[in-house]
Specification:
The complex is a heterodimer of chains A (408) and B (396).
Chain A lengths: L1 H23 L1 H22 L7 E7 L4 H12 L3 E6 L3 H9 L5 E5 L3 H6 L4 E7 L4 H30 L4 H4 L6 E6 L6 H30 L2 H4 L10 H31 L7 H23 L7 H6 L2 H8 L11 H8 L2 H15 L7 H31 L3 H7 L6
Parallel strand pairs in A: 1-2, 1-3
Antiparallel strand pairs in A: 3-4
Chain B lengths: L1 H8 L4 H14 L1 H21 L8 E7 L4 H11 L4 E5 L4 H9 L5 E5 L3 H6 L6 E6 L3 H29 L4 H8 L2 E7 L7 H31 L3 H7 L4 H30 L8 H25 L3 H18 L11 H7 L3 H14 L8 H12 L5 H9 L6
Parallel strand pairs in B: 1-2, 1-3
Antiparallel strand pairs in B: 3-4
Helix pairs in contact in B: 2-11, 3-9, 3-11, 7-8, 9-11, 9-12, 9-13, 9-15, 11-12, 12-13, 12-15, 12-16, 12-17, 15-16
């Protein structure tokens, strides 16, 4: 009974003292205020135009017939492309592309109109710059749409010409095709990438803050101007106390990130906020676990930047947002399985954009809890056998006694 | 007295500083990881992640509410497509939507009830398909496949209409698609995602690590109060101190950069239509530009943590703001300005000009000049670095 009381008293003392330590540390404050508050806004602003429109294109028209001009007009009228001019020949068009004035060349061969007049199929070529896939995609969509719209008109005309009997049937569209984008109805880039990135930012806030706190603990107190040690008799009590402290501090920023940022930038918001919060709980716990493990490798406050910042990219690529997880190589898939970010991004995106309920993401939820348990256990081991001995330079037993907080 | 004794034995000059800098790198495992381990891992990781080029066999479903021979034929056509793996056969729209919400499929194709009957009697039934655009790549690929299937179906119907009106099937075929616009993706005909992403992401990783290590190693001098000693070794010249200190790092980064070029274009056979010389020159200058950018940041904010924060922020933001995926001209003008502030932006433009498109060097000249501007930039803040190095104060 006494032990239990001491355990909870330890949690409480660590919790209170950790606040004081965090407030004294401008580095950690930056991680838990600036990072969650400003970063999502900067990121969202970059992609906020959502769609790639009016990408410049140059036309080489070797046909100069009414039909070829109609083709160019219709492509120009598409949202995605903008015809900035005609070039006399392909080398001239290439020069325009080389000097970065346009990103595609539409070449219409001679005899284009005549071929259609003869009821043959006429083809044009579109050369696209491939440095960015979004530009190419836009050109492709524009070309496909024009191809179908103009082709549909022409073939209806022709069909009625050769087979007047069919007129009654083909005057209207035989078989209308409709496509619907789910989740991200505008096909916007911001709405696609940001919900996942928000989760990654939250993830990195916690790990970086905890890593920096760990670095502070292992540096000379005189170097950083305050005594960063804060331990209860039992390591789990210390860990829980610290976790509670950071959770308290991050509660509002987290709410801001998963609710208000999507609200401000009109990202998809199909999920139930309470369910999303419940879903993200185990992710927070797992992030704390990773942070505690990172402390074992962080001997200096600033080294978290050098060692950890680049992992954001690793987590993003492993999360399945860019490359689908089902098609990853086994080793990367296994690696992504043990990243809480993977499951959090997957589940959050499904809830937030596709409107999945908590029970529909049960697999992700279960994996998050498993991750939380695994990482917290690893965190305990890191603290017990690595961080504490390296601070006190003695065997665990004597650490246990010295670690007791002085009641002042 | 101690000072005098120390300065008597203190080796001065650029070579001594370089040796000292090298020893510092050798003694710090963190720097091995940051300069060699992490970049190498990222080279391997990014290229291996996208090695297949494009994902194939994307899980999808077809909801066949008609159940006739025509609808089964559509199912077969769709199932035969390379991009699609018809994993589920939901019986209703709701069931299919749930499968999509749970992530079991990335999209589905819907054939309505009485499809065949309506079609034959000219009542224009509508076929529709749904793609989950929350996952951009599989969503877009499914869209393309679904659309192709729908268009084929439509063409088949039109042929039978023409035939029923007495038209010969051979002559009817060109009627269905009178206009064809063939897309010619220059330099990346297979639409390989690796060529598209690895060529921009990998240099951006290098930039991030270069900036962090540069600032970290300079900041350490101030934090550990060794900067005064460094200045004495340089006989008071801040240029000698900083550049001799950074040169060994530059050499390591150069080796990494040349390895990166060979990794991308030699081992992975990514498109290389231009000259190797200009690409390698670009990477060498890029390394110096990134170091100089970091040096400039450090000159503005000689606080280790703040300058590291700024470098981490800009380094990570570079992946987005340097317009590797979302074009710079489509961003808000106020944001797109920042795109031009990142060294890696010029690296990307040179890659697109030289390696991907094989353009004449004339068209990339300005990007190379931009590198040189970066390299000159820190000269303007050297006096500040000297001031802080002479009187080192560590603020956590």
């Amino acid at each position: 009974m006494k032990r239990i009381r001491e355990f909870f008293a330890g949690i409480f003392r660590v919790y209170c003292r950790e606040f004081k330590l965090v407030l004294k540390d401008p580095g950690i404050i930056l991680f838990i205020t600036f990072l969650p508050l400003a970063y999502p806004v900067i990121y969202s602003l970059i992609y906020n135009p959502e769609l790639v429109k009016d990408v410049p294109m140059v036309v080489v028209d070797n046909d100069r017939s009414p039909l070829s001009r109609q083709l160019v007009r219709e492509i120009d009228a598409c949202d995605q492309a903008r015809v900035i001019g005609y070039a006399a020949d392909l080398p001239e068009a290439r020069r325009a592309m080389d000097s970065h004035k346009c990103f595609a060349i539409l070449e219409i061969p001679g005899g284009f109109g005549r071929k259609i007049g003869r009821s043959e199929s006429a083809s044009a070529a579109m050369y696209c710059d491939m440095s960015l896939l979004l530009r190419y995609r836009g050109f492709l969509v524009a070309a496909t749409e024009v191809m179908q719209a103009m082709g549909g008109e022409l073939s209806t005309e022709k069909l009625n010409l050769v087979a007047p009997l069919a007129e009654t049937i083909v005057t209207e569209d035989l078989l209308p095709i409709e496509n619907i984008s789910m989740g991200n109805i505008r096909n916007g880039f911001d709405s696609f990438i940001m919900p996942g990135v928000l989760i990654l930012i939250l993830h990195q806030c916690i790990v970086l803050a905890l890593g920096m706190a760990g670095g502070a603990r292992r540096e000379k107190a005189s170097a950083i101007g305050y005594n960063p040690h804060n331990n209860a008799r039992y390591i789990p009590a210390t860990m829980i106390g610290q976790m509670l402290c950071y959770s308290t501090l991050l509660a509002l920023p987290a709410l801001y990130m998963i609710h208000y940022v999507p609200l401000m930038f009109r990202f998809p918001m199909e999920g139930n906020l309470l369910e999303e919060m419940a879903f993200l709980m185990p992710m927070l716990a797992a992030c704390f676990g990773i942070g505690f493990v990172l402390q074992a490798f962080t001997t200096e406050r600033e080294s978290v930047f050098v060692s950890w910042v680049v992992t954001s990219l690793i987590f993003l690529l492993l999360s399945g947002l860019i490359w689908p997880r089902y098609d990853m190589y086994g080793v990367w898939k296994a690696m992504s399985d043990i990243c809480p970010a993977t499951w959090a991004v997957e589940g959050f995106v499904k809830m937030n954009a596709n409107g999945a309920a908590l029970w529909q993401v049960r697999h992700e939820y279960l994996m998050l809890w498993l991750n939380a348990a695994g990482w917290l256990a690893a965190g305990y081991c890191a603290q017990r056998w690595c961080v504490l001995p390296s601070i006190y330079g003695k065997s665990r037993k004597s650490v246990d006694k010295e670690v007791l907080p002085t009641r002042s | 007295m101690i000072m005098n004794k120390e300065s008597a034995t203190l080796k001065t000059g650029a070579r001594a500083i370089m040796v000292r800098s090298l020893v510092q790198i050798v003694r710090r495992p963190l720097l091995w990881i940051a300069m060699i381990g992490l970049p190498l891992f990222m080279f391997l990781f990014v290229t291996s992640m996208f090695e297949k080029g494009l994902p194939t066999r994307i899980p999808a479903a077809i909801v066949d509410r008609d159940g006739t021979s025509l609808s089964r034929q559509i199912t077969q056509t769709l199932g035969g497509m390379q991009m699609v793996d018809l994993k589920e056969t939901p019986q209703s729209y709701t069931e299919a939507r749930h499968a999509m919400q749970e992530g079991r499929i990335y999209g589905f194709f819907l054939i309505p009830e009485n499809f065949e009957a309506d079609l034959l009697s000219g009542r224009s039934p509508e076929i529709s398909f749904y793609t989950n655009m929350v996952y951009f790549v599989p969503g877009s690929l499914l869209f393309k496949t679904f659309k192709a299937t729908a268009v084929y179906t439509k063409a088949g119907v039109a042929v039978s209409v023409a035939q029923s009106a007495g038209q010969n099937p051979e002559t009817a075929a060109p009627l269905l698609q009178p206009i064809n616009i063939a897309a010619r993706p220059i330099g990346n005909p297979q639409l390989n995602y690796g060529i598209y992403l690895a060529n921009s992401f990998i240099p951006a990783v290098l930039q991030l690590m270069i900036m962090l290590v540069t600032v970290f190693s300079l900041g350490q001098e101030i934090k550990r109060h060794t900067s005064t000693r460094l200045l004495r070794m340089a006989r008071g010249s801040i240029f000698r101190a900083v550049y001799s200190k950074l040169l060994p790092q530059t050499v390591i980064w150069w080796v990494m950069a040349v390895f990166m070029v060979s990794w991308l274009y030699k081992y992975n056979h990514f498109t290389m239509q231009g000259s190797w010389g200009w690409m390698i020159l670009s990477e060498l200058l890029f390394v110096m530009a990134a170091q100089s950018f970091a040096l400039f940041v450090f000159g503005l904010l000689p606080n280790l943590r703040l300058s590291l924060s700024v470098c981490a922020l800009t380094g990570i933001l570079s992946f987005s703001i340097a317009a590797f995926s979302f074009p710079e001209e489509s961003m808000y003008p106020a944001m797109s300005i920042f795109s031009w502030l990142m060294p890696v932006r010029y690296n990307f433009l040179i890659y697109a000009d030289q390696a991907l498109n094989g353009r004449d060097i004339f068209y990339s000249r300005i990007w190379y000049v931009a590198y040189i501007a970066y390299i000159v930039l820190p000269v303007t803040v050297m006096w500040r670095i000297k001031r802080f190095m002479a009187k080192p104060v560590y603020a956590p």
